[in-house]
């Protein structure tokens, strides 16, 4: 039996995960070495060494999730525990969280920082997939089938937006929408949700106007003005985007060579996190861009393929949710770096520096690998 299970694993997906992590580690060292010394006054390999620890921890979580049967996540007690846990963490964040970049997004445990909103992404994927899988018989009943998961989705998005972290709240909302679309719900039921959402927006609009100074802060407005005309505001609001353009443009087709970025020398604000793709473009040119976009696209398309092959509604929806999470986050990061959308501070999956994001992605991809394994095993050996 174990030999059959081992043969059923998708090793191409596992390889893509580790290759992107290692490529990201290499680029983090290149992008962060000067910033570490000049801005943070630490050793040049500080972020590189921390990311190595993150990758080791992420590998443990990845293999644990890949080996653990995904169908166990449907257990009602487990669902209650993770939902209660993430709500408790987000409430604790509002009270004890550390403020960074005008947002209370981090909880500090000794020398470790934890970002609860990252883990809310996987919680909403598991919860909505499990509830809609259990409610397949009355998936189009608005009160019994449609509404309960949406209530939690809106509640979590509201808590995260209150940090304020509108970027992550928007990502979680879009992930929830992809799960709803893949749940088997009829268009009529989805349309009712849209109407209900518009009505809720109208009801909340007076509150938004009342709190507009706190919601539409000077920093958030600056991101819009910098996005609309970065060269007009290149000494201020458009500074980040203009330097991202310079990095991408100077790299051209072939790149300037690994370690040869100029923009990472204090011009790009976060060269190892939000703007790491600009450094990759400057140093490695189209080859670096192809490695990142090609690798992430492979994972996303593989996830969609797994969802099509999977006959279990729960596994199908989780595969869609995990794939959409990676695709949405990558699109938002790349869109911000290239000026297609305003900069949001969303990291590039598996490439940017960060522990919470990497561990969340490793667990998510481990779950996806497990879904793939069970799907293949059932098709090959249970006919």
UniProtKB/TrEMBL annotation:
Domain of life: Bacteria
Transmembrane segments: 52-71, 78-99, 119-134, 146-162, 168-186, 193-210, 284-305, 317-344, 350-374
Keywords: Cell cycle, Cell division, Cell shape, Glycosyltransferase, Membrane, Peptidoglycan synthesis, Transferase, Transmembrane, Transmembrane helix
Enzyme Commission number(s) of this protein: 2.4.99.28
Protein's GO biological process: cell division
Localization (cell): Membrane
Keyword Transferase set for record: yes
Main location class: membrane
Annotated InterPro entries: Cell_cycle_FtsW-rel_CS, FtsW/RodA
One Pfam short name: FTSW_RODA_SPOVE
Membrane topology, as annotated: Multi-pass membrane protein
Family as reported in the entry's similarity comment: Belongs to the SEDS family. FtsW subfamily.
Function: Peptidoglycan polymerase that is essential for cell division.
Name of this protein: Probable peptidoglycan glycosyltransferase FtsW
Organism: Bacillus badius
């Amino acid at each position: 039996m174990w030999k059959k299970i081992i043969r059923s694993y998708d090793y191409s997906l596992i390889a893509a995960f580790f290759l992107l992590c290692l490529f990201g580690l290499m680029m983090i060292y290149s992008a962060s070495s000067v910033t570490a010394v000049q801005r943070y006054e630490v050793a040049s390999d500080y972020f590189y060494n921390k990311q190595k620890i993150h990758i080791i921890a992420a590998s443990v979580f990845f293999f644990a999730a890949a080996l653990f049967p995904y169908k166990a996540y449907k257990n009602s007690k487990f669902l209650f525990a993770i939902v209660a846990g993430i709500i408790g963490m987000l409430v604790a964040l509002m009270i004890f969280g550390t403020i960074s970049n005008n947002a209370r997004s981090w909880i500090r445990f000794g020398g470790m920082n934890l970002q609860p909103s990252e883990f809310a992404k996987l919680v909403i994927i598991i919860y909505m997939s499990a509830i809609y899988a259990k409610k397949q018989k009355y998936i189009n009943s608005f009160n019994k089938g449609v509404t309960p998961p949406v209530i939690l989705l809106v509640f979590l998005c509201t808590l995260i937006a209150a940090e304020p972290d509108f970027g992550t709240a928007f990502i979680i909302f879009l992930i929830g929408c992809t799960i709803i679309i893949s749940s088997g719900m009829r268009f009529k039921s989805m349309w009712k949700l849209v109407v209900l959402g518009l009505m809720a927006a109208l009801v909340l609009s007076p509150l938004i106007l009342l709190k507009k100074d706190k919601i539409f802060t000077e920093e958030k407005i600056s991101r819009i003005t910098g996005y609309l005309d970065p060269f007009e505001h290149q000494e201020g609001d458009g500074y980040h985007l203009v330097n991202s353009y310079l990095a991408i443009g100077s790299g051209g087709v072939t790149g300037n060579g690994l370690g040869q970025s100029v923009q990472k020398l204090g011009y790009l604000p976060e060269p190892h996190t939000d703007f790491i793709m600009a450094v990759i473009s400057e140093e490695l040119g189209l080859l670096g861009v192809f490695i990142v976009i090609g690798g992430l696209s492979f994972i996303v398309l593989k996830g969609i393929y797994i969802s099509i092959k999977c006959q279990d509604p729960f596994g199908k929806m989780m595969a869609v949710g995990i794939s959409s999470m990676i695709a949405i986050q990558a699109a938002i990061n790349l869109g911000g770096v290239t000026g297609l959308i305003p900069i949001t501070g969303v990291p590039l999956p598996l490439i940017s520096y960060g522990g919470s994001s990497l561990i969340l992605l490793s667990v998510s991809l481990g779950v996806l690998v497990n879904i793939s394994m069970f799907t293949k095993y059932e098709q090959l050996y249970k006919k």
